[in-house]
Amino acid sequence: MHLKCKFSLFYLFFLMSTKSLLQNTILYSFSGLILRASSIFLFPIFSYYLKASDYGIISITGSLTLIISSIAMLEIPRAITRYIYVQENNKHQNDQYISTAFITILSIHLVLSLLLIFLGKFLLKPLLNDIPFFPYMFIAILALPFTALFDFYKQLKKSEQNGYTAFKAEMLYYGGNIFFNLLFVVVFKMDAMGIILSTLVVAILFSLYFFFFEKKIYTSGFSWPLLKNLLHYSMPILIFILFGLLMESTDRLFLNYKTNTTSSGIYYIALTFASIFSILKESVNSSFTPWFYEYYEKKRYRELEKIFKSILIGMTILSVSLTWFSYEILYILTSNRDLLAATSYIPYALISLYLVFIGQTFNLFVFYEISKTKHLIWSNLAGFLINLLFCYLLVPVYLEKGAILSRLAAFFIMSSIQIVIGMHFSKIKIRYSFISLLLLLNILFSSILFLPIPYLYLIIFKIVTTIIMLILFYLYLKKSYSFSIKNIFHLIKS
Q: Is 474 exposed, middle or buried (CB count within 10 Å of its CB: 0-12, 13-18, 19+)?
């Protein structure tokens, strides 16, 4: 009786302590799911109006603007999470931190955008290859300062654990994007230009709202000492993130440089499909980070270890399931059968993102140690160099397959280093054998797709095995946390 009571109390404590985490995860996941789901439902429409070359243009311009914006952001939003949420400064100082961060980010975006408008045609020409700077890249650069406002606002609300406000902002922003995408692509037949122009229009509209109704975010003044605090924490992370972005973009840019926008487009479809996995990855990370800092600060290591293992197992099942049913999903979504060539690269892309998730999870232990974040630079630097080397060797010969294998090798090296560094600073005991087993199972299950198995037998195997994995995962949760279907629905309802 005593043991049962003790266990029930532990479950109640777990239920209450993880409620905020779960609620925010659901909100972030739901917004991501809506975005991805809308993209999936709209994909048959867009694939009818857009060619593979259009997807190539979208991919390359998107990669370049992401790198530029990340540099201009200086990873200051992550620093805000660390200083405001954990240290719990007074309200006046918190407002100054936010205002200082906003003024810094906007100023850098404006200066950098102006420079690229005048010099970008010459600086970016080798990377663009057959993509004209005007109008595609020109419009994308114009949008940068405006998109920065939305990104800053969204990350700020997530840092404050204000999941509902962040959710509403994302719904309005991405809903506007979808509306203008349909308007420009379907009605006005603007092809890839319609997608890029939509981003600019929606970002401008959000900026107008921001300046009129969110004045408190940027009216508390600017403080050099507070900026130094933010940069002290964020700069090592910026270098880390920048190498990560270069690593993630190298294969795309190299493929476009060696081939054309059509090959880049097919490759982009594979990566885009795999990014469905990123919905929960990003959602869990966004909501888990402030919760992790709180629990780690209070030395609640046993609970964190349980949650870590549960999350890793759940994401393994998700990765395998998406890999197995990638062909069926893409076949249903598009009438353009040329785009089905992307399914050959999806398993590699999903395993790559799975490796990224594991690495990011262990990065939290390093991010907690303000003075230790510089250690992570080496992981992304190694990944970037591996990707660059493999692209140089493989892409000219194997094209898309060479690019995806380069990406997989780079992400494996990067994640391995991050896991080793994370475990070094971690006070949570998670065995290497546990991580290795999950990765091995992911690779083995994904490899089944490449075996010469008749399709009927293969689809039956995939369905049955997926159901078994979900049942086993449910039993694991039930054993670890006394979860039941009723409990899960209660948490979701809450």
A: middle
Tokens of 98: 């936010």
Using an 8 Å Cβ cutoff, are 42 and 182 in contact?
yes
Question: Rounded to 10 degrees, what is the CA torsion of 139, 235, 244, 391?
Answer: 90
Which secondary structure element, helix H or strand E, spans residue 385, and what is its range? Answer: helix 377-425
Tell me how far apart the alpha carbons of residues 19 and 161 are, in angstroms, rounded to a whole number.
Answer: 12
How far is C-alpha 347 from the chain's CA centre? 18
Q: Which residues of 430-452 are buried (b: 16+ CB within 10 A; e: fewer)?
A: beeeebeebbeebeebbebbeee
The model's pLDDT over 358-411, given as tens digits with 9 standing for 90+, comes to 988 888 877 766 556 566 788 889 999 999 999 999 999 998 999 999 999 999
| Helix, strand, coil percentages in the chain from 3-state DSSP, rounded to 5 | 90, 0, 10
Tokens of 383: 């990944």
Whole-angstrom CA distances from 267 to 129, 244, 330 are 16, 19, 14
| Gap between the Cα atoms of 317 and 312, Å rounded | 9
Alpha-carbon span 393 to 414, nearest angstrom: 19
Residues 276, 349 contacting (CB under 8 angstroms): no
